[in-house]
Amino acid sequence: MAKTHWHYPRSEFAKSTFAVLVDGPLPGITLFGPRRTGKTEFLTQDLAPLAENAGHRVVYANFWQALESPLAILLYELDFALRHGTILDRVQNAAADLAPKFKIKNPVGEGEVEIDLARLKGRAPDNLLLLLDQYCERLADDQKPTLLLFDEFQELARGDAAKPMIAALRTSLEKRKNGIASVFTGSSQERLRSMFSPTQAPFFRFALQHDLPPFDHAFVDHQLKAFRTTFKASIDADEARAVFDNGDRNPLLLQRWLMARGMHPHLNAEAALDKVNADLAGEFGFAEKWLQLTAIQRAAARALAERVTPIFGAAGATRMSSLLHEPPPAPQRIQAAIRKLVRLGLADKWDESWRLADPIFEAWIRNRPETDF
């Protein structure tokens, strides 16, 4: 995925992140950012090229859809980094294209090792955990530390199957603090912290905590410049900034709105935004997710979308009562509804406040008619 004029480089943040990784006191950092706010783009288009240009090897692994075989995905990526070149090669040959069976190079000898994904569900075999350690040994470089970029790392915390792999990874990285530096990103602040903050956490005291900085109006100006380059037309900057601000400063929403304006020039700002919201709702299956929720879960989601606080106090109960047209629900009922939203991956805790995990889904819920509860 080559850089384009649409990419907004976060150069200064990449430089500071790289400096912390290479010269900081700990061998890793955690990087939280809500969904669809550019974490992957930052890793692959800002941080990775910066490190590679400075002579460091980079490994990228995304665990978002790898719950059944995260170890296989990681071994594939470690092998790919040793066999091939840059992060650009990696992104163009995504691990999502893995066949049911694939081969990786034996990191300590001749020949190859075949991995059968169908047989790798559940607890990781000890021989493959040994391979993980051997790959880390091959990649470690005290002079030019290898960067391991773990995207959506918190997904490994969803079940017990990945625990042996997580423990083995911690041990392998601990042994090579000077030769390997790691970035652990997550879109669930609560689950990401659960792997690093509590004393019993698998990566306790292993990484510094950082948040991905939000975009400001400089991002909007950059996107408007890219729009002019692509469509040979201009859009009112105040309109674009209003869409950006009202959409919780979500970069995806603004970019889709600009595409709609460019491809459908007859649409005004409001009509283009309606189209984008409808398209995104269909693309991400918002209606299907909504239909899976009970009335109290929908009311809880709406209260979260409106940022009602405290959600478990009188304000939350009063708002849900008005949506459900019934007496205020008991705290235990609200807690059960929130827990269900969390299990479904729809809600999360941000800085001690409960929020919906996806800002775009949050906006979609706020626009639901109040009869839909």
Any overview of this molecule?
With 373 residues, the protein is of the alpha/beta class. It folds into three domains: 11-211, 3-Layer(aba) Sandwich (Rossmann fold), CATH 3.40.50; 217-283, no CATH class; 286-366, Arc Repressor Mutant, subunit A. 49% of the residues lie in helices and 12% in strands. The chain contains 16 helices and nine strands. The protein has helices at 11-23, 39-53, 70-83, 87-92, 126-139, 163-174, 189-194, 217-231, 237-246, 251-263, 269-283, 286-291, 295-305, 314-324, 331-343, 359-366, and strands spanning 28-32, 58-62, 101-105, 112-116, 146-151, 180-186, 208-211, 347-350, 353-356. The strands form three sheets. The chain has a five-stranded parallel beta sheet. A two-stranded antiparallel ribbon has the order 3-4. The chain has a two-stranded antiparallel ribbon with strand order 8-9. α3 (70-83) packs parallel to α5 (126-139) and α13 (295-305) crosses α16. It is globular, with a radius of gyration of 22 Å. The two termini are 42 Å apart. The model has no long low-confidence stretch (mean pLDDT 89).
What would you say about this model in short?
The protein is an alpha/beta fold and 373 residues long. The chain has helices spanning 11-23, 39-53, 70-83, 87-92, 126-139, 163-174, 189-194, 217-231, 237-246, 251-263, 269-283, 286-291, 295-305, 314-324, 331-343, 359-366; strands at residues 28-32, 58-62, 101-105, 112-116, 146-151, 180-186, 208-211, 347-350, 353-356.
